[in-house]
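Retro notes
What went well: the complex prediction finally ran end to end.
Inputs used:
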Amino acid sequence: EVELVESGGGLAQPGGSLRLSCAGSGFTFSANWMQWVRQVPGKGLVWVSRINGDGSDTSYADSVKGRFTISRDNAKNTLYLQMNSLRAEDTAVYYCATSRSGRFDHWGQGALVTVSS
Amino acid sequence: DIVMTQSPDSLAVSLGERATINCKSSQSLLSTSNNKYSLVWYQQRPGQPPKLLIYGASTRESGVPDRFSGSGSGTDFTLTISSLQAEDAAVYYCQHHSSVPWTFGQGTKVEI
C-alpha cells in the first residue's frame, strides 16, 4: 500500500526557513514524479512544485520561485521542500503527492506550516 | 496560466439524486500528443487529503464507484454523481495538467 508521510511543518517567522520532508513507502519511489500542493485551511488547492524521478527536472509556481527548492533522496525514499524567505501568505497545509501522467494519485495527510511573528 | 473555473460554488442535493459540477478551462485541454484531455477530478472530504476520482476527463480511477462519471471536451467538463450517497458530501476540484503551472478550480462543495 502506498504511504506518504509529511513532516517538518510548524511555526516560522516571516523571513525564516523550514524544510518539509515526505517519506514514501509501498511503491518504487525513484520511478515517480513527486509534487507539493498547498492549501490554506478552508480554501482551495494550489500546486507548488514538482520533481521528476531522478531529480533532474523541477518546476515551481511563480509565487514560490526563487524561495522554495524541491529535491529528493531516492536512497531514503524521501522528498523535500526547502522553504526560505517565508511570508505570511505561505501559511497553509502542504501535501506531497505522487503523480502519473499529470494526475496526483496518492496524497499524504499534509503538514501545517504557519508563518507568523 | 490556464484558469479553471468551477460552477456552482456549492450545491445541496438530496440522497439518491444527481449532482452535476461544471469546470471550464481558459484554454483547450486536449493533448495533441495522445488525443486525451488533461483534466482530472478530485474529492476532498473534511479533514482529509484530496482523492483522485477521474483522469483524462472521463476515466475513473481504480476503486472509484461507478456513480461518479466525467465528461466533456475542449474547455468544458462535467463531473456527475448519479445517485448521491451520504459519503459523497465533500468538496470537488478539477485540475488541469496541460502545462505548468498546473492549476485547480476553486472547488465545489456538495452538501446533502
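What we learned: The radius of gyration of chain B is 13 Å.
What to try next: split runs per interface for comparison.
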